[in-house]
Specification:
2 domains; Rossmann fold; single chain; 15-stranded mixed β-sheet; three-stranded antiparallel β-sheet; alpha/beta; 15 helices; Molybdenum Cofactor Biosythetic Enzyme, Chain A
Amino acid sequence: MILGVIADDFTGATDVASMLVRAGMQTVQVLGVPEGGLPQADAVVIALKTRTVAPADAVAQSLTALAALRTAGARQIYFKYCSTFDSTPQGNIGPVTDALMAALGAEFTIACPAFPENGRTVFRGHLFVGDVLLSDSGMRNHPLTPMTDANLVRVLQAQTTHPVGLLRHDTLDGGTPATQARMAQLRADGVKIAVADAVSNEHLLTLAEACADLPLLTAGSGVALGLPPAYARRGWFTPNANAADLDSLQGPAAVVSGSCSEATNAQVAQWLAAGRTALQIDPLALHQGRQSADTVLAQATQALAQGPVLTYATAASESVRAVQQALGVQAAGELVEHALARVAQGLVQAGVRRLVVAGGETSGAVVQALGVQQLRIGAPICPGVPWTQSTLPGNGEAVQLALKSGNFGGVDFFAQALRQAGVVL
């Protein structure tokens, strides 16, 4: 194994795995740390669900994943978080980074959530989502990790015990030698973590080449795009043009959506506008017993005869806040996750073999309900979202999953994903 990745949520794991496969790296994603050891591959991505748990729990799970990756011989460790740097003043990005640095004896690392292909850029240490600062984007209303400050140096410094500095875009413009020289200067000045600018893929490639020999990287998925070429230049592996090949599956298809991001709201609206079948889950109705996951599942299963069906709890931010005020943030989230996971599980039992899941928390709940342990990573549907394939426990049949981060994809993403998997709409 060359690269071992610790991802803080399930969609983020497929996101970074997609970048590696795209550059010809044989990549396998596992869901949690398997008891029997890790599979053999150029890169292994361990998907955790630690983005919004207590910092101490996030640290403990991340260290367990690190131990498994080191036992498997990983040359480099990559802590993957969201391209919108989802966190709170307490963590979890800073505490996990600190713990991994200590365990690896790493004296320096970078922090770079940039993913320009999806509109996430870092300029002079400030994170932009499209043309607006992170703090002016829809992330300011995130129900669990509201991001109200775009200054990543300031955000990260509040979470870590290490001095945080800045690796600017104009240094990256000078190429790998200039970047490495600046990193050496930052280290000499006592900086332990450098927030790295990146406004283009060229910046990501330079950053990856400059950092490929560090024991630890922390980033979104963008930096991973440049690592396979950097490794190939070092003679560590030969890129494989067929790394993204998956099987051709038949049978019904479906979509489940729990994300309440602006992007996913637009995707649900597009599906509805196209007149396709959709069933909405109402958290308050679930709580009051006026609706149940099994009732929605029965309706969705029946609707499969007419084509793909969307089951969604996606709602506008004001509706989400009202539900959270009534039920509590954690209780509301868990209620929706369990319901959507039950629907997804039942749909797969009914024969669905191509399933699109929107939302990181929802994706985690769904793959756990399905009992999926390992994913082969396929071709991207859009930047950062690939199709994946796994084997169902029990019957051994193949199932393909598209696990979409809430903020990713165009308005027609659901239909685009299904068409790419061979579904006729």
